[in-house]
């Protein structure tokens, strides 16, 4: 009775840590339904243990528990103990992250409370001549009724004591029968456990809905954003003034400040995502991308601001938000014991797909993401890439208007990545919106119609890929191949180098090989570059040349430096300060040999 209830928390902790529990909430499960189904399954398993305990007592012919008057009381005690102690164990699923640790701790706690509370009150009952101790014992019994362990343990002791008194009367030929369900006997124990089951279950639901954490939310930052990029400011103004009524996803001053921290992890994000758009979120680890997704899905509370999905607010209409959202978390929220097909069938049912279409939808997800070969294998045997495919397929089930994909291609091979890209493109063509985070610039260029780069929780730039390259790029990359002036002679790149330095001052030579030169030219006039190269091609002995724009990787790296440099200064202020003012000591004179 101590070990079995503690075991019911193991799977709950595993679901919470793996994020499978939250993914079920996003797919349409309400907290009440989630905990009621868990309780129904656990009480059914607990009933098997109760039957085994009763059969053991019957097998050993213990009259104290198996007589015609005491057997119903024993069954009632055991049943209501499970009714009360199982919900009492549920809040512990929020306190532990390792299931085995939780099992040992809860089992020891149950043993300690059950044995000590029953033993203490039993020993105090023996001091019949000490009225003060007896009064204290009666009050202690009333207080300890809040623990189901005491109600069960003390009830079993009272049944045994009552049977001993009955046996004494029987020796003198008198019949002494006491109704075990009397209030002063077992009645109050059973009633207390019946009430505790409801109270502990309600307490668990309040914890799930963060009822006790609402007063501990951090204060939103008061400062105004200074030096904001022009495109980001225009988007903020458009959203705040009510523009973009057709936006399927709209963020308004969305902010998150974690308790105990002064700097926001997400700072006043404003953006609108239209139907048929793939919006990309770029940023180094810790920039706030996953925190933004967690707020949109209701995994963490919003400090200030709001966001709307298909017109529903994440603050007041979270259940409706979940109905219109698909979510692929950063880490795979899968049950290792279920197969890929069973995952898709489960989430299809949670999404409200009619039962006769569940198998068809599961087959669609398997074909869409290329999981045919592994569909009937348990998810625990999948490779990292196949787990990401399955997580993405779960996000697409039910055709939600908004799909949030948090680094969906991490760990995928190039073939699987291209397969997933085609799936995302088909979603966009259907008129749905996709919000994508990724560390792959190639992926963003292939999929995103607009993107934003996040640094320390804020948007530093926003727009189309070509617009960001033109605005924040470092000019153009010019590559030239020099031919020799005479047959058999070595090519002379000198004239070409002098030409670049004269006509494009400030240019940077990136590479120089035998007959190859590469320069980074800070010039906004592409026509002038081509005009000069074409008109001087023969005099400079240029065999061939190419001009390319600065890549998205370089734009991203330039913004990412802002966050990494600030972190270095914050973590190593002395070292950072030392680099600003370096004094080189003169070398000592050589010693005479």
TrEMBL record:
The chain crosses the membrane at residues 39-59, 71-90, 102-124, 185-207. InterPro entries: AAA+_ATPase, ABC2_TM, ABC_transporter-like_ATP-bd, ABCA, P-loop_NTPase, R2_ABCA1-4-like. It is found in: Membrane. Residues 567-593 are annotated as: Disordered. The keyword Transmembrane applies. Its main location: membrane. It holds the Pfam family ABC_tran. It is a multi-pass membrane protein. Residues 249-481 form the ABC transporter domain. Keywords: ATP-binding, Membrane, Nucleotide-binding, Transmembrane, Transmembrane helix. PROSITE patterns: ABC_TRANSPORTER_2 (PS50893). GO terms for molecular function: ABC-type transporter activity; ATP binding; ATP hydrolysis activity; lipid transporter activity. GO terms for cellular component: membrane. The keyword Membrane applies. This is ABC transporter domain-containing protein.
């Amino acid at each position: 009775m101590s070990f079995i209830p503690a075991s019911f928390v193991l799977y709950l902790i595993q679901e919470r840590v793996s994020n499978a529990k939250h993914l079920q909430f996003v797919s349409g499960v309400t907290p009440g339904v989630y905990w009621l189904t868990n309780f129904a399954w656990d009480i059914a398993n607990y009933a098997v243990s109760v039957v085994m305990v009763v059969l053991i007592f019957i097998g050993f012919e213990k009259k104290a528990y198996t007589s015609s008057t005491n057997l119903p009381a024993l069954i009632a005690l055991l049943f209501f103990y499970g009714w009360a102690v199982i919900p009492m164990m549920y809040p512990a699923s929020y306190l532990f992250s390792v299931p085995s640790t939780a099992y040992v701790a809860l089992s020891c706690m149950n043993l300690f409370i059950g044995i000590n509370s029953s033993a203490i009150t039993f020993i105090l009952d023996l001091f019949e001549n000490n009225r003060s101790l007896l009064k204290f014992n009666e009050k202690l019994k009333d207080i300890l009724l809040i623990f189901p362990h005491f109600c069960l343990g003390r009830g079993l002791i009272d049944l045994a004591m009552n049977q001993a008194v009955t046996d004494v009367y029987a020796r003198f030929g008198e019949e002494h029968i006491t109704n075990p369900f009397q209030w002063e006997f077992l009645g109050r124990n059973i009633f207390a456990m019946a009430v505790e089951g409801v109270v502990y279950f309600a307490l668990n639901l309040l914890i799930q809905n963060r009822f006790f954490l609402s007063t501990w939310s951090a204060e939103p930052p008061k400062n105004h954003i200074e030096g904001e990029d022009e495109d980001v400011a225009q988007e903020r103004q458009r959203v705040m003034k009510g523009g973009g009524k057709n936006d399927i996803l709209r963020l308004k001053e969305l902010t998150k400040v974690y308790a105990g921290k002064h700097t926001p992890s997400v700072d006043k994000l404003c953006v609108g995502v239209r139907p048929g758009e793939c919006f990309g979120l770029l940023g180094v680890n810790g920039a706030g991308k996953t925190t933004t997704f967690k707020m949109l899905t209701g995994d963490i509370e919003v400090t200030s601001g709001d966001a709307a999905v298909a017109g529903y607010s994440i603050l007041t209409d979270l259940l409706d938000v979940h109905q219109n959202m698909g979510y692929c978390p950063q880490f795979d929220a899968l049950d290792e014991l279920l197969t890929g097909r069973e995952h898709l069938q489960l989430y299809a049912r949670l999404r409200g797909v009619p039962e006769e279409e569940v198998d068809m939808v599961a087959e669609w997800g398997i074909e869409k993401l290329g999981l045919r070969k592994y569909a009937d294998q348990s998810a625990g045997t999948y490779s990292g890439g196949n787990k990401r495919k399955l997580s993405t397929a779960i996000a697409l089930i039910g055709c939600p208007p908004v799909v949030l994909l948090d680094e969906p291609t991490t760990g995928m091979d190039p073939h699987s990545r291209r397969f997933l890209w085609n799936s995302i493109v088909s979603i966009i063509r259907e008129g749905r919106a996709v919000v994508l985070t990724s560390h792959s610039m190639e992926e963003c260029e292939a999929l995103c119609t607009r993107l934003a780069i996040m640094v320390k929780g804020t948007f530093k730039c926003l727009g189309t890929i070509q617009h960001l390259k033109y605005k924040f790029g470092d000019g153009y990359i010019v590559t030239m191949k020099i031919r020799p002036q005479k047959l058999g002679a070595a090519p002379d790149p000198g004239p070409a180098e002098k030409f670049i330095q004269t006509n494009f001052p400030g240019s940077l030579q990136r590479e120089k090989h035998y007959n190859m030169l590469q320069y980074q030219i800070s010039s906004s006039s592409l026509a002038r570059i081509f005009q000069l190269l074409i008109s001087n091609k023969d005099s400079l002995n240029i065999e061939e040349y190419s001009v390319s724009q600065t890549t998205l990787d370089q734009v991203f790296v330039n913004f990412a430096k802002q966050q990494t440099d600030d972190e270095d200064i914050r973590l190593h202020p002395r070292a950072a300060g030392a680099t600003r003012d370096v004094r080189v000591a003169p070398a000592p004179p050589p010693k005479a040999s």
